[in-house]
Write a structure and sequence with these properties.
This protein has 857 residues and is an alpha/beta fold. It has 3 domains: 222 residues, no CATH class; 136 residues, no CATH class; 261 residues, Alkaline Phosphatase, subunit A, CATH 3.40.720. The protein contains 27 helices and 15 strands. The strands form 3 sheets. An 8-stranded mixed β-sheet has the order 4-3-5-1-6-7-2-8, sandwiched between helices. Strands 11-12-13-14-15 form a 5-stranded antiparallel β-sheet, covered by helices on one side. A hairpin with a 6-residue loop joins strand 11 and strand 12. Helix 3 packs antiparallel against helix 4. The chain is globular. The relative contact order is 0.12. It holds the Pfam family Sulfatase. This is Sulfatase N-terminal domain-containing protein. Keywords: Membrane, Transmembrane, Transmembrane helix.
């Protein structure tokens, strides 16, 4: 009979805690060691493991067992065993997460996932690597459990004997003379006491003098750090302290600081009596507006309600003329926009929309092939996204320098030569978390800098596109109770949202409702027995189905828009390009990377196959518009929600979660219309420019009636983004008020005596999950700062002209240390820019909390 020899439970549990805790600490330090000064690290390293040693000692005492057993001993054993299992599990999760992404788990954000059933599927997707890590840690614990348990026990006993022996020695002496006690003490015991006291004093001294950043963060020990998961902490300072956080560079003369109080507020003439949600700040009476401002922001004089007159970062280009190529098309009245489609590309990296030579990602893919196979690899890669080539006008070339033949594409562009729409090169996302990104594209607002979609419980501070279209409908219904006009300008708008995956994740269904969508088609519709069309295939990832399951719903919607006198606004999110990058069973997968069997290329190859799948789906959508006969009257906007980092971009960290790499931020942005001239615009814009551009296009193409055009024109200047049918303004000159300067270095750079200050367009991007780090760039500078907005994260600088792929990023735990590294290489200008970026970033974080009216509960 085979007998399995199991270790005694308390020694094994104790060994599991020690092995797991110390392994987790080693991983934690290793992930940050490059940014630690070597001498300081060696000096303070004993303090980093001190909390772990305390946890180990306490757990060893709890797991002490002896005979006879008592109830107290059982209780302590249960407590010690619980701590050991928790530590073992948490360490396994950390190693599993690291093996998947190269990053570490932030326990403070984990409670948002654990409380969301849909999010749990994301966590369970990594169960294989977590199980492997748990097995490895358990095996090591099994091998060392006996010796480790006994050795630690002997050590604690020696400490006890040392302390007890010294006390007994003191109390055995009749006099309290220190000389007498020393004379009577055992020399060996005295030496031990002296060494122990010196060690304790040294540790205490190092603990007191070490810098809090980053050593407090690095010294955190399991299972104590798990408490962060149950503690809801603010990512910024208290939202009531805005008065103590003025705009860092001063304000131009005459700039209003509280227009809602300084100016008498009057209800706009275009606003109907009962406007839809999203227009509350116009709908309030002057008394209600003032009261809401004062009570919603703790009495702060700036109030809560967003007012574009008070936005010191807003730079408008509405005073500029419409781009010259567009002027002729508008004068000829050849452009009509009856319908709007907003297509959001999940994990839509600009480098794959379209895939073409000449960027760092393409070069990285080629490097995976042997030299003699690279021409073949080029020809395969440039054929990956033919539809994206036609939509953007960015035609790829093959290994022979010839333009790629796109006859194999799912859809063929019928637009005339030189026509097709506006392609933006240089766009970046406002957040690498999908739903926070949607707030920019659908509502023209910046997201809230806290983890996950807390915005779903707050009022969005600008009207979203569905709400604007519903306002147009409300105005028409009041003007004409019965509408029999055959003019499309009088038809009602119908906002519809579609995706083939769940809308339960992170409260997306609530967000959709807040944005104004009354009709949605999501996974529940595709699975329902009572749904109009049920899904025919299997789910491709933990969120839901492939986009092709929406085909019949889209056909019906497009046919209705063509025949039933409605104006369609469709928002559709693709999802197949989301991790784990699965495709339908009947979709043929290709091998795009070399080095067959190299594990590090597997994820990138899976992603590229889903990119090809989605490119084909976009072709289907465009073909359905053609078939319905509405393509020439439909504006289709393509935008990526965020990018996706892989090992080919950064060997250290992959994915989007708490990863500030630039590959997670560059996204495509295209305004497609077959009657618009083909225009390429280089602009470091974000998705907050989408609504201003759409409204401007609707007005300029006379695609709205007189009343709707008046409303759109009035709304246009209230949005923070610029209209991209006019020349993009990357910076303006402003004269700062000298008395508002608080930083000597900035004062020296922008002194009024030296003339006006150039204020650039500042782009801010939240890094998934939203409350830890902020990406800061400007439209007229090549610099980029990843700014930590809570403890435990590093400052990161990159020069995007010198290093477009961010292979040589510079990191430090403080801005001062980062500037010391940046200044010798990039000069005083880069150093001054970093100071500006940090101050603006910190100001922006607090300002967003005020605008959103967000306060921790």
């Amino acid at each position: 009979m085979l007998r399995v020899c199991l270790p005694p439970l308390p020694p094994f549990l104790f060994a599991a805690l020690v092995v797991s805790g110390l392994a987790s600490k080693a991983l934690h330090i290793a992930l940050h060691i490059r940014s630690l000064p070597f001498v300081y690290f060696i000096l303070f390293s004993p303090t980093l493991v001190l909390p772990d040693l305390v946890v180990i000692a306490v757990t060893r005492l709890l797991l002490q067992f002896s005979s006879p057993e008592t109830r107290l001993q059982w209780i302590s054993t249960y407590i010690g065993g619980f701590l050991s299992l928790i530590t073992w599990g948490a360490s396994s999760i950390q190693f599993g997460f690291f093996m998947q992404t190269g990053a570490e788990v932030a326990w403070a954000a984990s409670n948002s996932f654990l409380s969301d059933p849909a999010a749990m599927k994301i966590l369970l997707s990594g169960i294989t690597t977590v199980s492997a890590a748990a097995t490895a840690l358990g095996l090591v614990a099994f091998l060392v459990h006996s010796r480790l348990y006994n050795f630690t026990g002997l050590g604690l006993q020696a400490i006890r004997d040392l302390c007890v022996g010294s006390l007994e020695a003191r109390h055995s002496i009749p006099t309290f003379s220190s000389k007498a006690w020393v004379a009577s003490a055992n020399p060996q015991s005295l030496r031990r006491i002296t060494v122990a006291a010196a060690a304790c004093v040294s540790l205490l001294f190092l603990e007191l003098v070490r810098p809090s950043v980053p050593y407090d963060h690095l010294s955190g020990a399991l299972p104590l750090t798990l408490l962060d998961a149950f503690r809801k902490t603010s990512a910024t300072v208290d939202s009531c302290s805005v008065a103590a956080n003025p705009f860092p560079f001063g304000l131009p003369p005459g700039f209003q600081t509280n227009s809602s109080v300084a100016d008498p507020w009057s209800r706009p003439a275009w606003l109907p009596q009962n406007p839809p949600a999203g227009f509350s700040r116009w709908h309030l009476s002057p008394e209600e507006r003032l009261r809401k401002d004062n009570t919603s922001a703790c009495g702060n004089p700036q109030g809560k309600l967003f007012d574009p007159k008070n936005d010191p970062l807003k730079i408008s280009n509405l005073g500029g003329e419409v781009l010259e190529p567009l002027q002729k098309a508008f004068k000829d009245h050849s452009v009509h926009v009856d319908h709007v489609v907003l297509l959001t590309l999940e994990s839509g990296r600009k480098e794959v929309f379209p895939m073409q030579q000449g960027n760092y990602m393409f070069d990285a893919l080629l490097d995976s092939h042997r030299k003699y196979k690279q021409d073949q690899a080029i020809d395969e890669l440039v054929r990956l996204t033919p539809v994206a080539q036609m939509l953007t006008g960015e035609r790829a070339t093959d290994s022979k320098g010839q333009q790629v033949n796109l006859s194999h594409a799912q859809w063929q562009d019928s637009a005339k030569e030189g026509m097709g729409g506006i392609n933006i090169r240089g766009a970046v996302t406002g957040s690498s978390l999908t739903f926070k990104s949607l707030l920019g594209s659908h509502c023209g607002v910046h997201p809230l800098p806290v983890d996950m979609l807390e915005e779903s419980g707050l009022e969005i501070y600008q009207p979203c596109l569905p709400q604007i279209f519903k306002l147009f409908n409300e105005v028409k219904s009041q003007a004409n109770s019965t509408n029999t006009s055959t003019n499309a300008l009088n038809y009602p708008w119908k906002p519809v949202f579609m995706q083939s995956i769940t809308d339960d994740f992170d409260r997306q269904n609530i967000l959709n409702d807040h944005m104004g969508f009354e009709e949605t088609v999501v996974r529940n519709n595709l699975r329902s027995l009572y749904g109009k069309y049920r899904a025919q295939g299997d789910e491709v990832n933990y969120f839901g189905y492939a986009e092709t399951e929406l085909r019949p719903y889209l056909r019906d919607l497009f046919d209705e828009a063509a025949k039933n006198k409605t104006r369609m606004f469709l928002s559709h999110i693709t999802s197949t390009t989301h991790h784990p990058w699965g495709t339908p069973d009947d979709f043929p997968e290709e091998q795009y990377l070399g080095n067959q069997g190299d594990v590090r290329h597997t994820q990138m190859n899976d992603y590229l196959n889903t990119v090809r799948f989605v490119d084909g789906w976009l072709g289907e959508v465009m073909s359905m518009l053609d078939e319905a006969g509405i393509a020439n009257k439909t504006l289709v906007v393509f935008v990526g929600d965020h990018g996706q980092a892989f090992a080919e971009d950064d060997e250290a960290v992959t994915g989007t979660y708490e990863n500030g790499h630039i590959s997670n931020f560059r996204v495509p942005l295209v305004f497609r219309h077959p009657q618009l001239p083909r225009i390429d615009i280089a602009a470091n814009a974000t998705s907050i420019s989408i609504i201003p551009t759409i409204l401007d296009l609707l007005v300029q193409t006379q695609s709205l009636d007189e009343r709707d055009s008046e409303i759109a024109s009035a709304l246009l200047p209230t949005y923070q983004g610029q209209s991209l049918i006019r020349p993009f303004v990357p910076a303006v000159e402003r004269h700062p008020m000298e008395q508002n300067y608080t930083n000597a270095a900035i004062h020296a750079r922008y002194s009024p005596e030296e003339g006006p200050r150039v204020q650039p367009v500042w782009n801010f991007g939240l890094i998934n999950a939203g409350g830890s780090m902020l990406s800061v760039t400007t439209a007229n500078d090549p610099y980029r700062l990843v700014l930590p907005i809570k403890d435990g994260f590093e400052y990161t600088f990159s020069h995007l002209l010198d290093d477009p792929g961010e292979r040589k990023r510079m990191k430090a735990w403080t801005l001062k240390d980062l500037i010391k590294s940046v200044k010798p290489k990039y000069g005083d200008e880069a150093a001054a820019w970093l100071q500006d970026a940090e101050q603006l970033g910190k100001w922006w974080v607090v300002e967003q909390r005020r605008i959103w009216g967000y306060q921790e509960s």
